[in-house]
Design goal:
CATH class: Alpha Beta
Number of domains: 1
CATH superfamily: Nucleoside Triphosphate Pyrophosphohydrolase
Largest sheet: 8 strands, mixed
Helix content: 10-25%
Order of helices and strands: HHEEEEHEEEEEEEH
CATH architecture: Alpha-Beta Complex
Number of strands: 11
Oligomer: single chain
Length: 210
Protein backbone atom coordinates (compact mmCIF):
# COMPACT_ATOMS: atom_id res chain seq x y z
CA UNK A 1 0.00 0.00 0.00
CA UNK A 2 1.27 3.46 -0.90
CA UNK A 3 1.27 6.16 1.73
CA UNK A 4 -1.06 8.99 0.78
CA UNK A 5 -2.48 12.19 2.28
CA UNK A 6 -5.88 10.51 2.58
CA UNK A 7 -4.48 7.61 4.57
CA UNK A 8 -2.50 9.92 6.85
CA UNK A 9 -5.61 12.01 7.53
CA UNK A 10 -7.49 8.83 8.41
CA UNK A 11 -4.71 7.84 10.81
CA UNK A 12 -4.73 11.25 12.49
CA UNK A 13 -8.50 11.15 13.00
CA UNK A 14 -8.81 7.64 14.48
CA UNK A 15 -11.51 7.42 17.13
CA UNK A 16 -10.64 5.95 20.50
CA UNK A 17 -6.90 6.12 19.86
CA UNK A 18 -4.85 5.68 23.04
CA UNK A 19 -2.40 8.57 22.82
CA UNK A 20 -1.06 8.08 26.35
CA UNK A 21 -0.11 4.46 25.63
CA UNK A 22 1.68 5.43 22.41
CA UNK A 23 3.65 8.13 24.22
CA UNK A 24 4.40 5.99 27.27
CA UNK A 25 5.92 3.27 25.09
CA UNK A 26 8.82 5.61 24.22
CA UNK A 27 8.85 7.94 27.24
CA UNK A 28 11.83 7.98 29.66
CA UNK A 29 10.70 6.63 33.01
CA UNK A 30 10.14 7.94 35.59
CA UNK A 31 9.37 11.25 33.90
CA UNK A 32 6.05 13.13 33.86
CA UNK A 33 4.00 13.01 30.66
CA UNK A 34 2.30 16.25 31.72
CA UNK A 35 3.63 19.42 33.32
CA UNK A 36 3.20 19.25 37.12
CA UNK A 37 0.35 21.46 38.28
CA UNK A 38 2.49 22.93 41.07
CA UNK A 39 5.41 23.88 38.81
CA UNK A 40 5.83 27.67 38.88
CA UNK A 41 5.63 29.87 35.81
CA UNK A 42 4.53 28.77 32.37
CA UNK A 43 6.24 26.39 29.94
CA UNK A 44 8.08 27.38 26.80
CA UNK A 45 5.90 26.69 23.76
CA UNK A 46 7.21 25.20 20.54
CA UNK A 47 6.07 23.40 17.40
CA UNK A 48 7.62 20.87 15.05
CA UNK A 49 6.74 19.46 11.64
CA UNK A 50 6.70 15.76 10.76
CA UNK A 51 7.17 15.76 6.99
CA UNK A 52 6.22 12.57 5.15
CA UNK A 53 6.94 11.84 1.49
CA UNK A 54 7.71 9.08 -0.98
CA UNK A 55 11.34 8.47 -1.96
CA UNK A 56 12.45 5.52 -4.08
CA UNK A 57 8.85 4.23 -3.83
CA UNK A 58 9.13 4.06 -0.06
CA UNK A 59 7.52 6.31 2.58
CA UNK A 60 10.11 8.49 4.31
CA UNK A 61 10.09 10.89 7.23
CA UNK A 62 12.36 13.90 7.69
CA UNK A 63 14.59 14.16 10.75
CA UNK A 64 17.48 16.43 11.65
CA UNK A 65 20.43 16.24 14.01
CA UNK A 66 20.75 19.47 15.94
CA UNK A 67 24.04 21.31 16.19
CA UNK A 68 26.07 20.64 19.34
CA UNK A 69 26.20 24.28 20.45
CA UNK A 70 22.46 24.96 20.61
CA UNK A 71 20.91 26.00 23.93
CA UNK A 72 18.12 23.41 23.93
CA UNK A 73 18.69 19.71 23.23
CA UNK A 74 22.10 20.07 21.52
CA UNK A 75 23.18 17.25 19.24
CA UNK A 76 19.88 15.39 19.48
CA UNK A 77 17.83 13.92 16.68
CA UNK A 78 14.59 15.83 16.25
CA UNK A 79 12.01 17.06 13.79
CA UNK A 80 12.40 20.52 12.27
CA UNK A 81 10.84 23.09 14.55
CA UNK A 82 11.46 25.49 17.38
CA UNK A 83 10.13 28.03 19.81
CA UNK A 84 6.95 29.98 19.17
CA UNK A 85 7.44 33.70 18.59
CA UNK A 86 5.10 36.33 20.11
CA UNK A 87 1.83 36.64 18.19
CA UNK A 88 2.57 33.58 16.08
CA UNK A 89 0.17 30.68 15.53
CA UNK A 90 1.64 27.27 16.35
CA UNK A 91 1.36 26.01 12.78
CA UNK A 92 3.16 29.14 11.60
CA UNK A 93 5.95 28.31 14.04
CA UNK A 94 6.36 24.80 12.66
CA UNK A 95 6.32 25.98 9.04
CA UNK A 96 8.67 28.91 9.64
CA UNK A 97 11.20 26.83 11.54
CA UNK A 98 11.10 24.06 8.95
CA UNK A 99 11.81 26.52 6.17
CA UNK A 100 14.61 28.14 8.18
CA UNK A 101 16.25 24.85 9.17
CA UNK A 102 15.99 22.70 6.04
CA UNK A 103 14.87 25.10 3.29
CA UNK A 104 11.51 23.44 2.73
CA UNK A 105 9.14 25.98 1.22
CA UNK A 106 5.70 26.33 2.81
CA UNK A 107 4.01 26.31 -0.59
CA UNK A 108 5.31 22.78 -1.24
CA UNK A 109 3.82 21.26 1.92
CA UNK A 110 0.28 20.06 2.56
CA UNK A 111 -0.50 20.16 6.28
CA UNK A 112 -2.72 17.20 7.17
CA UNK A 113 -3.27 17.52 10.91
CA UNK A 114 -1.50 17.27 14.21
CA UNK A 115 -0.48 14.87 16.94
CA UNK A 116 -0.90 15.33 20.68
CA UNK A 117 1.39 17.86 22.39
CA UNK A 118 4.42 16.42 24.17
CA UNK A 119 5.83 17.88 27.38
CA UNK A 120 9.63 17.91 27.80
CA UNK A 121 10.35 18.28 31.50
CA UNK A 122 14.14 18.99 31.46
CA UNK A 123 13.70 22.09 29.28
CA UNK A 124 10.10 22.82 30.38
CA UNK A 125 8.85 22.87 26.78
CA UNK A 126 5.38 21.97 25.55
CA UNK A 127 5.83 20.96 21.91
CA UNK A 128 2.99 20.76 19.39
CA UNK A 129 3.64 18.37 16.47
CA UNK A 130 2.06 18.91 13.06
CA UNK A 131 2.05 16.37 10.25
CA UNK A 132 2.56 17.34 6.61
CA UNK A 133 2.85 15.69 3.21
CA UNK A 134 5.33 16.62 0.51
CA UNK A 135 4.47 15.31 -2.97
CA UNK A 136 7.63 13.70 -4.27
CA UNK A 137 11.14 13.96 -2.94
CA UNK A 138 11.80 17.36 -1.33
CA UNK A 139 14.74 19.59 -2.14
CA UNK A 140 16.46 20.23 1.18
CA UNK A 141 19.13 22.68 2.29
CA UNK A 142 20.35 22.66 5.87
CA UNK A 143 20.92 25.76 7.95
CA UNK A 144 24.44 25.06 9.21
CA UNK A 145 23.97 27.28 12.25
CA UNK A 146 21.23 25.02 13.60
CA UNK A 147 21.34 21.72 11.73
CA UNK A 148 24.31 19.38 11.74
CA UNK A 149 22.70 16.80 9.48
CA UNK A 150 19.49 16.17 7.56
CA UNK A 151 18.34 12.56 7.98
CA UNK A 152 15.87 11.18 5.44
CA UNK A 153 14.62 7.95 6.97
CA UNK A 154 12.41 5.18 5.56
CA UNK A 155 9.38 5.04 7.83
CA UNK A 156 9.33 1.25 7.84
CA UNK A 157 12.73 1.10 9.55
CA UNK A 158 11.08 2.02 12.83
CA UNK A 159 9.00 -1.18 12.69
CA UNK A 160 12.11 -3.38 12.77
CA UNK A 161 12.28 -4.91 16.29
CA UNK A 162 16.05 -4.39 16.33
CA UNK A 163 15.49 -0.63 16.10
CA UNK A 164 13.83 -0.49 19.53
CA UNK A 165 16.22 -0.46 22.46
CA UNK A 166 16.31 0.54 26.13
CA UNK A 167 19.12 1.78 28.35
CA UNK A 168 19.63 3.18 31.82
CA UNK A 169 20.84 6.79 32.05
CA UNK A 170 21.59 9.10 34.95
CA UNK A 171 20.13 12.57 34.35
CA UNK A 172 20.03 15.30 36.98
CA UNK A 173 21.00 12.72 39.60
CA UNK A 174 18.00 10.56 38.65
CA UNK A 175 18.18 7.09 37.14
CA UNK A 176 15.98 6.83 34.07
CA UNK A 177 14.94 3.93 31.89
CA UNK A 178 15.18 5.38 28.40
CA UNK A 179 13.60 3.65 25.38
CA UNK A 180 14.94 4.73 22.00
CA UNK A 181 15.11 3.89 18.32
CA UNK A 182 18.60 3.03 17.11
CA UNK A 183 19.16 4.85 13.83
CA UNK A 184 22.62 4.12 12.49
CA UNK A 185 25.02 5.73 14.92
CA UNK A 186 22.31 7.93 16.45
CA UNK A 187 19.62 7.35 19.06
CA UNK A 188 16.14 8.78 18.58
CA UNK A 189 14.67 9.25 22.04
CA UNK A 190 12.64 11.55 24.24
CA UNK A 191 9.94 13.73 22.69
CA UNK A 192 10.93 12.82 19.12
CA UNK A 193 10.58 9.10 19.82
CA UNK A 194 7.24 9.69 21.56
CA UNK A 195 5.89 11.57 18.55
CA UNK A 196 7.16 8.86 16.21
CA UNK A 197 5.49 6.22 18.36
CA UNK A 198 2.15 8.00 18.12
CA UNK A 199 2.44 8.43 14.37
CA UNK A 200 3.41 4.79 13.80
CA UNK A 201 0.62 3.47 16.00
CA UNK A 202 -1.90 5.66 14.24
CA UNK A 203 -0.75 4.40 10.84
CA UNK A 204 -1.04 0.84 12.13
CA UNK A 205 -4.58 1.64 13.26
CA UNK A 206 -5.36 2.91 9.77
CA UNK A 207 -4.02 -0.42 8.41
CA UNK A 208 -1.08 1.10 6.55
CA UNK A 209 1.39 -1.35 8.07
CA UNK A 210 0.17 -4.92 7.49
Amino acid sequence: MMLSPELIRAALSLRGFNTAAAHSAMSPSPRPLKRPADKPGIPHIGAVLLVLYEKFSSPHILLIRRQDDLKYHPGQISFPGGRQEPGEQLLETALRETQEEVGLQRSCIEVLGELAPVYISPSDFLVHPFVAWHPGQPELRKNKDEVAEIIETPLGLFLDPSMGCTEIRIMNNTELTVPFYRLGGDNVWGATAMMLSELLERLKGAHFFV
